[in-house]
Write a structure and sequence with these properties.
The complex is a heterodimer of chains A (172) and B (86). Chain A has five helices and nine strands, in the order βββαββαβαβαβαβ. Chain A is α/β, with parallel strands linked by helices and 172 residues long. Chain A folds into two domains: 9-94, no CATH class; 99-171, 3-Layer(aba) Sandwich (Rossmann fold). Chain A has a five-stranded antiparallel beta sheet. By secondary structure, chain B is mainly alpha-helical. Chain B has a domain at 20-32 and 50-84. The chains are: A alpha/beta (172), B mainly alpha (86). At the A-B interface, α3, α5 and β9 of A face α1 and β1 of B. β9 (169-171) of chain A pairs parallel with β1 of chain B, so a sheet runs across the interface.
Chain lengths: 172, 86
Amino acid sequence: MFSGTSYPRVTFQLFDVGEYLVLERLGTPNPQFSFSRTEVVSKGWQTGSRESSDALIDGRTTLYVPGDLLTLVLPLRDFVTFTTKIFHLLASAQLRITMKVLVTGATGTIGRHALLHALLRPEITSVVALSRRDLPADISNNPKLKVIILKDFNDWPQDILEEINDADAMIW
Amino acid sequence: MLKFKSLTSPRALGTSDNNRAANLDYPLAFQNSFIKVLEPRAGKAPFRYIHLSGKLVEQDQDRSLWFLAVPRKTKAWNIIPAIYNI
């Protein structure tokens, strides 16, 4: 589907194929980028690999295997967003941005989603959920996450405070 | 600070029951304890406190509101010191 020949192309090596497409930029040591399928599809980004040059990721079929080269053909309006995102991610990979984020209310509807989004962000390397109750096992198994059970939010014990005093942000 | 024991689990977001514990006391207790132990930010970005308060919440404590005035103001009360640097 490389019909728009004037559109910029960006080539990556595909790292992992799952719900998220994890891409590794050729020629750079480490940085990985991930885009959700829905993000790729909703923006109308056309994708193709060396093996199947006119493949389109549509969420129904997996046409890619790790190691494939993946070329994204982007409309110009998205290219700016895309490159900005890449520079942002490159910067965070090279500067080794590490963020520790505290989250409360993780058992509630909004808090749970705030927590899940925080866990997905590559810049956020550690998430501490301050909760009155245990979280479901499928969330609390995440290696980035530490759950601290706090019975009374009016009373913050010193040992808990010392565990979180190097945090960079709090989502209350 | 008032000690407040709620019978049910206190909920904050999405409520308009003016639950003082969840909307005001707990965040303030965290802020007051945390500010004493927060590591110096030596070159790092400032600590970000993001408060998800809810819809129609009013930060301006002097404004007259037509409905649910007290709960809507209470939910923003705990961030007033940060906004006005007091």
